[in-house]
Structure formats: structure tokens, C-alpha cells
Design a protein that fits this description.
about 375 residues; mainly alpha; two-stranded antiparallel sheet
Amino acid sequence: MVLLKMKFTLQRRVRLAQGLWLLSWLAVMCGTFVFCLGLYLKAELLRRAEVMDNTEIHVVPNILMMVGLASIGTNWVASRVCQDSLDASRFPRWKAFLLAWFVVATLLCFLLLAVVVLSYALQGSLEESLKVGLRNGIRFYKDTDVPGRCFQKETIDHLQMEFRCCGNNNFRDWFEVQWVSNRYLDFTSKDVKDRIRSNVDGRYLLDGVPFSCCNPASPRPCLQNRLTDNSAHHSYDFQSEELNLYSRGCRQALIDYYMGLMNSTGPGVLSVILIQMSVVLSLRYLQTSVEGAMAQEDPAGDSEGYILEKGLKETFEDLKANILILLKFGQVNPNAAQESPEAGDPEKASDNTTEKATSTTSAS
């Protein structure tokens, strides 16, 4: 049973080839879009690499860039096939490559579908990576004179101002770390000594936050020190006052940003999948209809085009049988040497043949 059979006249084949040529170039542009999308997402992830603990999420832009480049190449080949499809002397040269082309083009569609799934599936991994990365970034904020960490303060400050956030979960995360370097502390001061002595780990902890946590939209001048002390500021209540600091944590801000980017790629990638599948199906119809006309030795005559020569079940069984044959050819029988040891020793085999011949003569 032929799957989705259609009849094609010469005029319909010409129209199909022309339409497919335009669709192929549209798919080339879509491949370029997918590549640029992956490149942009990769660049954005690399910009925040210092506040990420792992790079598992990078698999999404990596696949997008790989599929984008492959899509450009495969659809350019499809446009060339369209040009040669109506020339009886040039089309046969593509016949050997078309099966591989269909496999690659179908694989690209599945990879793009995998990107959409991974964009949602890796949200937990992204969140955990940011949680650990931001926690370390806040802890190393003070290490401006330590090699490898000297730009950590600048990174965190820019991050908090750009995304209008403070801390990992919220501004209280800064209360739990020493974010002022010892080189800027006056150890002769009683207040500094008392704060260090009051802490088990000997750290200088403050109920304050860096300047980058201050919200410029607040009408009140920024309060960034002694935040839990109501008497330190006029008309101030730490429990009820809406502080003039960013209330959202940077982890949530970054998750919202990156998931927004990846979610916005979903509709675009799905559109590219539909266009790519349209190219695959159209090229299959063009291939089978042109080959049918050539088989009748009448390139200008009517022919039939189809997606599969047999039904889905029969096609699957044939494909499975072909794969098994290929696997058998690739296998080496480990018992072959044991079954015929003489095969590995020509001299021994020759001696055995001579002995058999002598025994036969004696018997005669």
C-alpha cells in the first residue's frame, strides 16, 4: 500500500519544483535565524558565567547553533535538487544522496523538538546553578585583591543594578556574609572589634547591603546600613517599612530572564520545524514523481508521487531488516578461529592434507 499517493502532470511537477525552491531558501533563512538565536543565547549565558555553577544549560544554544548550520546546508542542497529535478541528465546524480538527505533533515526536526523540550526540562538545573553561583559570588564579593576574584564585586554590582535585584534570594543574604574586605576595616575601632568578637567565625557581619541594592525609584534616600535598627533612622520601621532596596532576589530575576528568552524561542523553533517538514515532504513528492516519469521513459508524461512506497508497518519492517543485515556484516564470529584452527596455520593445514592423501593411497 503506497502512502499518500498523488498524481503529477509535468505542469504540476514544474510548479512543485518552483515552490519548493522558494521554500528551501525560506528554510535557509530560518536556519540562519536558529543559528543566530543560539549564538545570542550562548553569549547571554557566557556573560553570566561567573554566577553560574555549571554549564548544563548551554546544551540548548549549542544544539540551536549546530542545527542552524546544518539546516542552512541541507536546505541549500534541496534548492539545488529543485533546479536539477526537471533535467533528465542532471537529476540522477542526486539519487544516491537523497536518502542520506532525508535522514539528516528529519533528524534536524527531532533535534529542534528536543530543544523546545530541554528549554523547559532544564529550568531546575538552571535554578540550582544560579543558586550556587550567586551564593559564591556574594561570598567572594570582598575579594577584590584576590587573583581570579578581583572582578567579582564589579560583576555582582552590575548584575544587581541591571536586573534591579538584591542578594541571592533577597537583600537579607548580605547580612550572612562579610562583604567588606579586611583591608578597609579599622581594627582599632571598638565597633569593629565588637562585631568580629561577637561572631563565631570571626567575620565582620553587617545588617547592611552594597550600594547596588538601592532602588533609585524610591523617594527616600538610600538606607543601606543598620537596616534592622529602627532607632538609627528617622521615621523608620524595619518590619513594616517598604525599604528603598530591590525586593527581588537576583536568582529569580535571572531565572525569569533566561526562561523568558528560552520560552520565546519555542514558537519560533516550532515554526522552523513546520517549514523544515514541509521541505522534506515536498522534496519526497518531487523525487518520486520525477523518478516515476523517468522510469516510464517519458519525462514529460504523467507520473505518481508518494511519501512511502509501502505502508508504515511494512516500511518499518524493511528498515529493521536492513539494519539487522548491516549489523551482521559488522560482526566478527569469535568461534571461527576455534572451529577451524588450521585456517590460521597454513603449514599445519598443508601437513594434514598430505597425511590424508597418504592414508588414502595406502588404503588403496
